[in-house]
Amino acid sequence: MPAKIIGAGLVLTCNPNFDILTNAGVVMQKGTIIELGDMAYLCKTYPNAPVFFDKKALLLPAFINPHVHFEFSGQRCFEYGSFEGWLSSVLKKRTGVLEKSQISMQKAINAQLLSGVGSVGAISSYGLDRYCLRDSPLRVVFFDELIGGQATSSNFKAFSQRHTLTNQLKSARFIPAIAIHAPYSVHKDLAKQVLHTFKSSVISTHFLESQAELEWLESQQGWFNYFYREILKVVPSPSFSSPFEFLDLFKNQRLLLVHALFANRQHLKHAKRISAQTTLITCPRSNRLLSGKILKTGLAKQLNMPIAIATDGESSNYNINFLEELRIALWSFQKPLLDLLPEVLLDATLHASKALGLNTGSLEKGKDADLALFALSGQIEPTLPYILNWLLHARRVKDLWVQGERVVIAGA
């Protein structure tokens, strides 16, 4: 396969130094970046390579949305304002939402692509999104999610059947993985059986999204006691005696801790100590809508724990436009904007890639060629204020490549 040169007037490498280049580009071959540099140098070095260069555009790694629920994309009816009210409404109304899932899931996939997302961490509760994601242009880490308050053979069998189907579809761009839903919804013996039986390169779990969850784990009291008795109509049967016991499930694993709004220093230090790698996944809009809080990123920074930004699903958000999520992150996290901007963009690229175990997220030699191109306006300047202005006004990607394949074309 011949080499191709893709370049732009402004390039964000999203490498650890957050290097900004002008009139630069990448050479890609067989879906991999083989060189990064000045356009004049690249064209001279690869004289026979086809060239795609857009002077009035920004080139950067395709975004990565590490936590999104596609199956609930058709919702417009859940209750916001408290986690407890939201969870109750999900259980009451989920059947009607799932009935319309195929059309809404395809719309959600398109929303990801148009907002510059090349890779997703898809959390699948039922497997309804398995084939549409497999057939999509996206690079997908597909998390079969374990839910089951009882360690029964039927719960294990149901999960095993779903995960076996997923494993049969494994490819370079469709990567099977496992998610453990949450401490309040999974029996520890069932979780241990699944994690012992199936290997997963990365594991995702919702962790301490609400005060009610923390109270349930620490004292086996509070709203979840009511939830089991009055909503699920079962006798409460606490499985974990503390947040630490739940975290111990993930020893030596690459772990995504999603939300962690009510996690304290001891919880995060324990997760970091026992896991192979822990990344906090924060979903600013979802967190504000459900729990009324935004993650305090300072604690994670103190512990040198990486953060990645995600949208969650439309069941807990008003859309899953990734550009909108990044803009809300700029409003939410308390730090000077020009200091925060590189962090937010790295959380959406390099850090998210490392969290999912992908070889993407930055424009560097040897990385998979997942690229996003956005139109620019005005006089191009290689400065943070100019890039901030772009992010505030960006509405859709102009061109998108995944594994070197052009999957979104300008005007299409």
Description:
The mean pLDDT is 95. An 8-stranded parallel β-sheet has the order 5-6-7-8-9-10-11-12, with helices on both faces. The protein has a 7-stranded mixed β-sheet with strand order 3-2-1-4-13-14-15, with helices on one face. Helix 5 links the parallel strand 7 (139-146) and strand 8. The protein has helices at 39-45, 83-99, 101-114, 130-134, 153-167, 188-197, 211-219, 223-231, 243-247, 265-274, 284-291, 297-302, 322-332, 337-347, 350-356, 384-393; strands at 4-12, 20-29, 32-38, 51-61, 63-68, 117-124, 139-146, 174-180, 203-207, 254-259, 277-282, 307-309, 371-375, 399-402, 405-408. It has 16 helices and 15 strands. With 412 residues, it is an alpha/beta fold. The protein is globular, with a radius of gyration of 21 Å. The chain folds into 2 domains: 4-61 and 360-408, Urease, subunit C, domain 1; 63-356, Metal-dependent hydrolases (TIM Barrel, Alpha-Beta Barrel). Keywords: Hydrolase. Residues 59-407 form the Amidohydrolase-related domain.
List keywords for this structure.
412 residues; alpha/beta; Urease, subunit C, domain 1; TIM Barrel; 2 domains; 8-stranded parallel sheet; 16 helices; 15 strands; 24% strand; globular
